[in-house]
Amino acid sequence: MVRQNGKRNRLSISRRRCLQTISVLGVGTVVGVSNTAASQGEEQIDQWANQNNLSDIAQWEFTPTPGYDEEDSLFAPPYPDTDTDTVYVGDLGGRMHALDIQTGEEKWRYAEPEHALWSTPTVYEETLYFGSGASDDEGRIYAINKNTGEEEWILDDFSGPIQDAIVAEDETVFFVATDLYAVDSETGDTKWTSSSAAESPGLEDGITESPVLRDGIIYINSGSVVAIETETGDVLWEIQTGNHHRPLVTEEGIYAGDRWFDRETGDEIWRYDQAPTDINITSQPVMSDDAIYIPNSRDDSTVHVIDANTGEELSVIDVSGNIRSMLAYDQTVYVGTANTDDGGGDGETGGVLYVIDAETRERIWAASRRNAELRLSPIAADGMVFTAATTGQLFAVEHGVHPFEDDGLVIFQPISEQTTSLLSVLAGAGGIGAAYLGYRRYRSDSQEASDSETQTYENDDEKTDIRSGDSSNSKLKITDYNTLTVGEPIKTISRLQLMHATVENHSCWVLTPADDTKETIDIEDVSEVISTLEPWDQMNSHPNLIEVYGVGYTPLPWAALEQAEYPTLVDRVDGFTTNELIELLQQICDALHHVQRYGTIYHNLTTESVFLAANDTIKLRGVLDQIGDADPWYAAPEEIDGESCEQSTVYRVGLITYELLTGTLPYPEYPNEDPEMVIKSSEIIPPSEQLDSIPAELESIIMKALSRSPDDRHETVLHLRDDLDSIRDSQFYL
Fold first, then answer.
1. Residue 216 lies in a domain
2. Per the structure, how many domains does the chain have?
3. Are 16 and 395 contacting, i.e. CB atoms less than 8 angstroms apart?
4. Structural element, H or E, at residue 719
5. How far is it, in rounded angstroms, from Cα 172 to Cα 168?
6. Do both 403 and 508 map to the same domain?
7. Which sign does the torsion angle of CA 614, 616, 620, 624 carry?
8. Does 56 map to a domain?
């Protein structure tokens, strides 16, 4: 599945930040912050690194399947092939995906489902080579046609998994499966192995790092740097380093551990004397502009920059998390990290992509992915940088563009200098109302440019804007309020009015502020509409969520939604078997995970949120739940204190499951006492006390989801979904 962000409008500003700035500073004064100045501050970069925003800045994002399954995890780095304009990436499900470099569209996939793909693939002539195997698996090596995905040959029964990079030269493919193997690129026949051809103390205990191939010599650093002749497998020289990492190999020499070696002889040229005594090099160092960048993953991870000619330390750059990957590309150094408390947003862990200017040796910007490792990538080609996340996404980020500056994407960031000046003048002249009305006209002008870039789908006389992306995930895109024919109101939800509407031959719902004067709009209503609806408009479609077709700001704030006149699941639950109910609950979990992938928390989830559409398809109310009044009986204990996390959503799914089974909530005082006191202090009534026939396995899952402490619940809704799936062989009727 591919999500494409497309082109960015240079006039785009953060509407939410605009309104927040106005609200905080009061009438007559607006003080803006320059994006350029802010981008140079370390504090600003740390904020970007904590916003779970890689999806927002990527030109496109690929996931192996909709939603997320553990088999979608990407632990293997991508490999771009510019000859075919293709980037290849493998997943833990054993699938190799061939994607268009510019769009992310999948050209073909090759599946070997019982063997996880971990190794960096390589292309030699017309063939793609890659390896497989988890830590306790026997390894395999695959050769497939790079254009079609057709299998050419497979080698198997290796003593260990093939997880390191594969390299090829002179009709020979080299890979590590405990030993170093050299095989014929056309037939797969073995030419030599390191155990048979080489006598080397540095190789006798097995090889743990990826080989580097240059000019007929392979270099490996598994405690010792070993130079191996590619034709015969003979060891040319060997130097002990005490470090295990892929060495940096250049035309001038080799860097490994804390030393620079002559590439032909192995003689030491200089030593990095200022290196920390406990330096932990966790990925391959890189070089840019006669400077070597060395990753050091200790408690406080740092990138050490040293002079490539002398070994003198030039600077030390702070990053957050375990450094898993580095890339030097066109005067820029990219650093991918994992397991950092600063990468997930809302205090959660995540992986961060740091971008460093090789001229100034300073961080430029950073972006992150929640709960992910940015492992063994990035890699670059054709002006694009590709980074893979263990949560199952491949991100394509445009190189050389600052995504948070005013000529790139601006999401919840300070206002550009141009817009700040405009708002300052307007606010000074006429107060908050005039400032907003002026901004609204400015936003309308800039929106025209943005709207003109939207892809258009034409079908006979019908013309409808479609958000770019793969056709299976496209959705109706409405960009102009005036194209809507608004009908009768349905109801009022928290100062917003929900109404029937049509556009062309499509029926939909429309939300607008209840005060429909179009000239004077309460700033609080406007802020609520923008901050609540805008993230949902940026999400891809999901079959189990009410879709947002568009959000606009002229002639008044509005949102167009999928029409969802369905019964609730709780009203139709009678007669479902356990398996059928579990399938419906899994759809709920998938939809919630989809929302969380975008860094958004689904608030106010209750049984009333769950519609039952045609063909037993779940539809969650989605954005409508975010703007209505909350039902306090469905809050998780920590939400009573104003805290919310992914496990809070698990608790709410547990409540919904309990109510679907028993017809009530699990509190003895429900519904007569104060809900906040009850939720924080009362013991949960086991469902078996309400329903005699409930299986013990299902009760155990529900009680875990309803644990008072978030730490005792399922870690994510996907873990809850999988737990439910494990008991689907039970059969009883509700």
1. no
2. 4
3. no
4. helix 717-725
5. 6
6. no
7. positive
8. yes
From start to end of 603-693, where are the E strands?
Answer: 610-613, 617-620
116 lies in some domain: no
Interval 290-338: pLDDT, tens: 999 999 987 678 999 999 999 999 999 998 888 888 999 888 999 988 8
Residue in the structure block whose two tokens are 């995905």: 149
444 and 582 housed in the same domain: no
Residue type, 528: E
164-221 pLDDT, tens digit per residue, is 889 999 999 999 888 899 999 999 999 999 887 656 666 766 787 889 999 999 999 8
The lowest-confidence range among 368-372, 510-514, 550-554 is: 368-372
Whether 628 has a pLDDT exceeding 70, the answer reads yes
User: For position 74, what pLDDT does the model report?
Assistant: 79
> Does 525 lie in the same domain as 389?
no
How sure is the predictor about 455, in pLDDT bands with cuts at 50, 70 and 90? very low
CB 112 within 8 A of CB 411: no
Q: Which residues of 194-233 are buried (b: 16+ CB within 10 A; e: fewer)?
A: bbebbebebbeeebebbbbbbeebbbbbbbbbbbbebeeb
Interatomic CA distance for residues 246 and 209, integer angstroms: 6
Percent of the chain with pLDDT over 90: 40
* CATH number of the domain to which 549 belongs: 3.30.200.20
Same-domain status, 599 and 666: yes
- Beta pairing partners, 616: none
Cis before residue 378, ω within 30 degrees of 0? yes
Does residue 612 sit in the same domain as residue 672?
Answer: yes
- Kindly list the distances between the CA atom of residue 125 and the CA atoms of 80, 95, 143, 472, in Å, as whole numbers in the listed order: 14, 22, 12, 33
Residue range of the domain that includes 330: 39-73+283-410
CA distance 668 to 690: 11
Please state the rounded mean pLDDT for residues 76-89: 89
